[in-house]
Write a structure and sequence with these properties.
CATH topology of the largest domain: Metallo-beta-lactamase, Chain A
CATH class of the largest domain: Alpha Beta
CATH superfamily of the largest domain: Ribonuclease Z/Hydroxyacylglutathione hydrolase-like
Radius of gyration: 29 Å
Helix content: 25-40%
Shape: globular
Largest sheet: 6 strands, mixed
Structural class: alpha/beta
Strand order of the largest sheet: 5-4-3-2-1-12
Number of domains: 2
Order of helices and strands: HEEEEEHEEEEHEHEHE
Number of helices: 5
Length: 258
């Protein structure tokens, strides 16, 4: 009788252990599935970041907005453009010099808590062209000016390098600078050249500058005087000549790719 009882107890214990083991295996399976799902979600987010490109909105005159792949917003020389175009909260505001058509900061009401404003004062601190590493973007100040309306000690252009390596050069108000031939060494992707021919160089000189800089794509902008009330002129833009030329009209957006 004792043997029978012991046998029954042994069988029950074995069954109980097997059941517990099954439950443990199920929990382990569920945990593994959860971890795999989390890894898949993270991989998908990384893939989206890898495939997402920055976009550039040309707002007219010298005003540009860049939205990075990280959804950071950079405004350059705010002055013209629909109010809606200035709606996204600014993370960086760049100004090339102090003339009124490049410093309409009041148009940018929405700003991130750590919004950084870089004017020519910061860009030329100590009389030297400065660089700014903001993590998701690098900003390098370069020469601008060289005409009677714009002094090289009071004006800058900017080279903006995005996290995926795409580079955008914005000349600011300028004529040909001594530095432009050296910019060709940077293999720039996009370059904006002012070409109003009134306060700065005209399209012929701007075309010569584009040949010096040798960017993959060259874009005419700031093609009229600010007091004209006209902030894009197709006829002037067509006179600008460069390899890889792109003409952007007011409100037109450009995907920034290598």
């Amino acid at each position: 009788m004792k043997k029978i009882v012991l046998l029954i107890i042994t069988i029950c214990m074995a069954a109980l252990l097997a059941a517990c083991g099954g439950m443990s295996d199920g929990a382990d399976d569920n945990q593994a599935q959860t971890e795999q799902a989390g890894q898949a979600e993270q991989t998908e987010e990384e893939t989206q970041m890898d495939t997402k490109n920055a976009t550039l909105l040309y707002m007219g005159h010298g005003s540009i907005r860049i939205t990075t792949a990280e959804d950071k917003v950079i405004y350059i020389d705010p002055f013209v453009g629909d109010d809606d175009w200035y709606g996204p909260a600014a993370d960086v505001i760049l100004s090339t010099h102090d003339h009124y058509d490049h410093v309409a900061f009041d148009k940018i009401e929405n700003r991130s808590d750590d919004c950084q404003v870089i004017t020519r004062k910061e860009a030329l601190a100590g009389g030297e062209h400065q660089s700014f590493d903001l993590g998701y973007v690098q900003v390098e100040a370069v020469e601008a000016g060289y005409n009677k309306n714009h002094n090289v000690s009071e004006c800058v252009g900017y080279i903006i390098t995005l996290s995926n390596g795409v580079t955008v050069y914005v000349s600011g108000d300028t004529s040909t600078t001594e530095q432009m031939p050296r910019l060709a060494e940077k293999n720039l992707d996009y370059a904006f050249f002012c070409c109003d021919g009134i306060y700065n160089m005209d399209t012929a000189e701007a075309s010569e500058c584009a040949a010096l800089v040798k960017a993959k794509h060259s874009i005419p902008y700031h093609m009229t005087a600010a007091n004209s009330g006209v902030f894009f002129d197709r006829a002037v833009a067509e006179q600008f000549e460069a390899d890889g030329r792109i003409i952007l009209e007011e409100g037109e957006e450009l995907e920034l790719v290598k």
